[in-house]
Structures are given as C-alpha cells and as structure tokens.
Structure to design on (347 residues):
C-alpha cells in the first residue's frame, strides 16, 4: 500500500516535468530564400554606322527592324567619283613603272660602260639614284591605290556583325558626307545584364546556388562576369555585369536579377534566444536540445543545414531549456507558408 501511495504522489510531479510540444521534420518547413535587385539588359555592340566618304545615297537594302547577317549590304553610295580616283591612281602607277623599267636599263648600260671605263663613277651613281627614286614613287603610288580601293569598298556599307537594325537615318538621294549617320545596328547575341549591387550582395550572389535575370515572367540563367571596383559615393553600390548562359531576352529589357541564397531556410518565428544566442530546439531522444545558429539574425529567416528528417520543436518551444524532457503532441493542420521568400528584395 505504501508503494502505491508513493507512486501516486510522484506521478503528478513526473507529468509536470514533461513539456508537451509539437514537432515537424525540417524538410516540411524549409523554403527557398531569394535575393533580388533591379537590372537591365544592355547591348555590348550597338554602333551607329556612318558614311566614310562624300557621296550620294543610291539605294537602301535594310529597314528598321530587319535582321541582318555580317557582310549584308545595308546602304549603297554613288561610287563613280571613288572609282575614277582609283583608275587615275592605277594610271599614274603605270607611268612610274614605265619610268622604272627605263631607269633599270640605264643602270645596266652604265655598269657595262663602267667596265670599259667609258663612263664616270658619278654618272653611274646618278642613274642608280634615279632608279631608287622611281622605285620609291611606285611604293607611294601603291599606297595611294590601296587608299582609293578602300574608298571604293566604302561605297557599299555592310553589316559588321549579325544583328538587327534599330534605326534607319539614311534616305535615298541624300548627300552623305564623311561621318553622316546612316543606320544603327545592335548585335543580337552580345548582351549583358547590368545591376547596381553593394559588396554584400555581390558576395551573396557569388555563393548562390542559382542565378537568373527575370523579365516578363521568363527567367534567363546568368553568371557573374565582373564588378566595377568603385563604389558610388551616394548609393554605396557598384555596377556589376552578368553574362547569359543560354537564351537571351531583348536588348533594353528591364527586370530583376534573382539569386537563391539557400533552399534550407526556416521562418523566423521558430527561432528562440537562450543566453543571448539565437537557435532552434530539436527533438532528440524525447528531450529538447538547443542548437545555436551562428548566422541567424533576429526577425529574419534562418538557414538550418541539418538532415531533412531532423525534428524541429514548434509549439511549446518558448518555455523550453536545453535537456528538458518533452511529450510529443499531434501537430494541428495549418496552411503552410509559401514556397518562396523574397526577404532580400530591393525596389
């Protein structure tokens, strides 16, 4: 009878020492934490193609919005003057070549006469000097011909690379002078994303598991190419450039740079503070174990890098201490939180 009374006395104390809690596996609480920042797609090559000579526009072979390939004819200029200058340069070259042939013959004759002592050394040197002078004129004239040939080539304005025409400034019949804008072309595949990020964001992007540029509901994978090593004095950010991994959006597209910080993040509401340190309570062998999270911040979602089946204590955690005995209760059905958190977004 005495042992029965003792059991009845101790039983309430034992029950009181066991804290009722609810638990859930971490894999059912984890969500993806994203960081975002405004960004824009820039074209690396978007030159204005200008006339390189003074000539009238004869014909146009591309319009605004047309897709062109490298070498395609865009604008044709009146080439009659350039072709005439080329013909004139070639004619002058033929004159110099005739003079050079004669000068060489004179040198050979002088060499023969010198062997017979029928000519002075001075006259031989004069003939050789004349030959060298004309040879120099031929070299200079060949350079003039190359320049004239380039002018003839400039009569046909071609696309420097594959791309598309964004603006046509030339008109048929207009007189184009050197430097007159004719067309603007954008290289289709030479695109990058530009964003203004602070050093912490650049570091977190580099450590992210996934990165992309999002515009119009479509995500394009990107990778960090370079960051300008200079901070803006007002925003404390620097320009960062990202290259596309595969498909690209349209040049000039505005959107957001998005990267995954972690896919093992739990809501901030499950964090507790013990002895000035933030952490979570886990269920281990029917006891509460406090696990410190070194990188956790008050009021912010926290990364918990533990096995997916680890049981996290939810309800009842506020009154627990490390090592407390606990009693599991059935977790009530509740609407789960969303899969994506954008706690790091910037407008």
């Amino acid at each position: 009878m005495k042992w029965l009374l003792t059991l009845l006395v101790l039983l309430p104390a034992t029950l009181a020492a066991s804290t009722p809690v609810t638990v859930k596996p971490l894999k059912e609480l984890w969500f993806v934490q994203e960081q975002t920042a405004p960004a824009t797609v820039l074209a690396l090559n978007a030159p204005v193609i200008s006339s390189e000579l003074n000539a009238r526009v004869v014909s146009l072979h591309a319009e605004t919005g047309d897709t062109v390939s490298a070498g395609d004819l865009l604008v044709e200029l009146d080439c009659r003057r350039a072709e005439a200058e080329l013909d004139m340069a070639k004619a002058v070259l033929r004159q110099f070549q005739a003079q050079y042939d004669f000068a060489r013959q004179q040198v050979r004759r002088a060499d023969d006469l010198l062997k017979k002592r029928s000519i002075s050394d001075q006259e031989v040197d004069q003939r050789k000097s004349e030959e060298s002078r004309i040879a120099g004129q031929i070299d200079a004239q060949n350079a003039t011909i190359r320049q004239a040939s380039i002018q003839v080539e400039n009569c046909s304005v071609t696309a420097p690379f594959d791309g598309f025409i964004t603006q046509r400034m030339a008109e048929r019949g207009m007189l184009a002078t050197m430097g007159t804008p004719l067309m603007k072309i954008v290289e289709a595949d030479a695109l990058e994303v530009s964003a203004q990020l602070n050093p912490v964001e650049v570091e977190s992007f580099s450590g992210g598991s996934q990165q992309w540029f999002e515009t119009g509901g479509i995500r394009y994978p990107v990778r960090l190419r370079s960051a300008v090593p200079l901070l803006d004095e007002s925003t404390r950010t620097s320009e960062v450039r990202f290259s596309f991994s595969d498909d690209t959006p349209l040049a000039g597209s505005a959107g957001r740079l998005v990267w995954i910080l972690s896919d093992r993040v739990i809501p901030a509401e499950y964090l507790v503070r013990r002895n000035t340190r933030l952490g979570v309570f886990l269920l281990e062998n029917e006891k509460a174990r406090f696990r410190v999270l070194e990188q956790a911040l008050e009021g912010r979602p926290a990364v918990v890098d533990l096995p997916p089946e680890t049981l996290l204590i939810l309800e009842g955690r506020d009154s627990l201490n490390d090592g407390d005995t606990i009693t599991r209760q059935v977790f009530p059905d509740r609407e789960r939180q969303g899969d994506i958190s954008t706690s790091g977004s910037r407008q």
Residues 1-16, 334-343 have pLDDT under 50 and may be disordered. The two ends are 74 Å apart (CA to CA). The chain has four helices and 22 strands.
